[in-house]
Design a protein that fits this description.
single chain; alpha/beta; UDP-N-acetylmuramoyl-L-alanine:D-glutamate ligase; ten-stranded mixed β-sheet; 11 helices
Length: 273
């Protein structure tokens, strides 16, 4: 297993382009934010736009539109009642993120089925599957071009085992997820593991990141860097390293308690990129 951190990654976004427009930096389409969980989509979309994605569209519940527009007017926020409303927005899109703030409900199920089946039919689509999207992935299948981002509890659900079994041998767990779902796997937690046939372990990051919303930030970063043109393995490692290094920067200055997702995004935007 190869260790990596932000300081030793040979990955960068092209900073030398001069003749550009917003389409030059990609478009990410996010499905997120069921009733009561609107913040997850707002956080993920903010992380994406603040990390350089040229255009971010958030498909969410209608009740969350005003909150999204008030916080991030740069994000296109679209309220839908279900699959039928959302179908047209997927046309010609190549980069999806599903899952933050989704739960067991008809609305979440319809959106996950739509996004997962669309990505399965079109191999040119990149799709990041996080949080609630992982639950529905068991039902509707995992596109081969996916990146999945389970934490230990979600990994246990996906493998029908206990969290203790996941944590006892995290590398073996990542391998099992990769073999079962046939896609790049990110097993989150202390020293996050990436597995795509080869194993990588991030040495950035620590306990400060163990707060609500930080996983939504990571998902938004991965989707953003995919949309900006990085290969899947590079987008995964770059996102994880930046996310972890930003958490470490906060810990160095403030200790391990009190990091919010908003703090994390601001550190990434101002100090990591």
């Amino acid at each position: 297993m190869q260790d990596f951190c932000l300081d030793n990654l040979d990955v960068s976004l092209d900073q030398g382009i001069l003749d550009t427009h917003k389409g030059s930096f990609g478009h990410l389409l996010i499905a997120s934010g069921d009733t009561g969980y609107g913040g997850a989509g707002i956080i993920a979309s903010e992380a994406a736009i603040m990390s350089g994605c040229g255009l971010v569209t958030l498909i969410t519940k209608k009740e969350h539109i005003q909150s999204s527009l008030s916080r991030n007017p740069e994000v296109i926020a679209l309220g839908v009642d279900g699959r039928q409303d959302a179908e047209g927005f997927l046309r010609d899109q190549k980069n999806f993120l599903i899952g933050p703030g989704l739960r067991e409900s008809v609305w979440s199920e319809q959106l996950c089925e739509l996004f997962l089946t669309s990505a399965e039919r079109n191999k040119d689509i990149n799709i990041v599957i996080d949080a609630g999207g992982l639950y529905y992935m068991k039902e509707f299948g995992c596109p081969q071009n996916a990146i999945i981002t389970p934490h230990p509890g979600e990994a246990a659900m996906l493998l029908d085992c206990s969290v203790d079994e996941v944590q006892t041998d995290r590398l073996e767990t990542a391998k099992k997820l990769y073999k079962k779902y046939n896609c790049l796997t990110i097993l989150k937690g202390f020293q996050t593991i990436v597995f795509d046939g080869e194993a990588y372990r991030c040495t950035d990051g620590g306990p400060a990141l163990s707060t609500a919303g930080t996983g939504d930030v990571l998902a938004g970063l991965i989707g953003s860097f995919l949309a900006q043109g990085l290969e899947k393995i590079d987008a995964a490692k770059f996102s994880i390293a930046i996310h972890g290094a930003a958490g470490d920067r906060f810990s160095k200055n403030n200790g391990i308690r009190g990091l919010t997702a908003t703090n994390l995004i601001n550190i990434i935007n101002k100090e990591m990129l």
